[in-house]
């Protein structure tokens, strides 16, 4: 619960806090909204992998780049080290992204971003999505059957304003069935990317 007292001193303190929040938002956005780091976050969500295992899944990222990104994500609190092993005289780390919400941005987070930052965040998301498509498309040249495991479409969905929160709740519950036990699952991993835009017409003011 946040209690705001109308007082000059408190207001100044709140402004300073808002500035710190905005700086933190920018720091986290700059860290996350990078196509290669978004790939790493996706691979590590619900999984525990060594750098070598990550490299096998993300062969388009150079070794030097991978270690650089892992270090930044670890220092930024987006991923964490769950185990360490001594391998041929070196210390090998095992990474995971146990709390993917750290890499996500809430509605309040996005509202606090500048228009340029919002644009850059969505652009990074689209770049990651396109790279995923290219990887599958290249694989499909050798294994055509893989095309049956992917798809993309845009569907119009009519939702009453008073039912919108129910739609969000039902969608979250459905996804939870397939993401809550990701670490223990032996199933094949897929990437489901969702976008939701209201239809914009002339005079839209909602």
In short:
With 206 residues, this protein is mainly alpha-helical. It is built from 7 helices and 3 strands; from the N terminus they run ααβααββααα.
Q: What portion of residues belong to β-strands? A: 5-15%
- The CATH superfamily of the domain at 9-141 appears as Winged helix-like DNA-binding domain superfamily/Winged helix DNA-binding domain
Q: Globular, elongated, flat, extended or rod-shaped: what is the shape? A: globular
Helix content: 40-55%
User: How do the helices and strands follow one another from N- to C-terminus?
Assistant: HHEHHEEHHH
Task: Give the class-level CATH name of the domain at 9-141.
Answer: Mainly Alpha
Q: Which residue ranges are poorly predicted, with pLDDT under 50 across at least 5 consecutive positions?
A: 1-15
Number of beta-strand segments: 3
Overall pLDDT, averaged?
Answer: 80
Kindly report how far apart the N and C termini lie.
Answer: 28 Å
Task: List its salient traits.
206 residues; Arc Repressor Mutant, subunit A; 3 strands
Secondary structure blueprint with pairings:
Layout: H1 8-32, H2 35-44, E1 48-49, H3 51-57, H4 63-75, E2 80-87, E3 90-96, H5 107-112, H6 115-142, H7 164-179
Antiparallel strand pairs: 1-3, 2-3
Helix pairs in contact: 2-6
């Amino acid at each position: 619960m946040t209690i705001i007292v109308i007082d000059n001193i408190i207001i100044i303190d709140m402004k300073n806090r808002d500035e710190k929040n905005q700086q933190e938002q920018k720091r986290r956005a700059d860290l996350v909204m990078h196509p290669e780091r978004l790939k790493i976050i996706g691979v590590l969500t619900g999984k525990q992998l060594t750098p070598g295992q990550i490299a096998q899944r993300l062969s388009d990222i150079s070794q030097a780049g991978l270690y650089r990104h892992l270090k930044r994500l670890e220092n930024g609190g987006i991923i964490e080290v769950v185990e360490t092993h001594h391998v041929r005289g070196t210390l090998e780390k095992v990474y995971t992204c146990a709390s993917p919400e750290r890499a996500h941005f809430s509605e309040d987070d996005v509202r606090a971003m500048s228009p340029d930052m919002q644009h850059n965040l969505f652009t990074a998301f689209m770049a990651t999505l396109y790279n995923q498509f290219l990887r599958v498309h290249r694989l499909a040249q050798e294994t055509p059957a893989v095309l049956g495991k992917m798809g993309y479409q845009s569907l119009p969905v009519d939702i009453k304003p008073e039912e919108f929160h129910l739609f969000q709740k039902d969608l979250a519950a459905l996804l939870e069935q397939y993401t809550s036990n990701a670490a223990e699952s032996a199933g094949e991993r897929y990437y489901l990317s969702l976008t939701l835009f209201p239809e914009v017409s002339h005079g839209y003011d909602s």
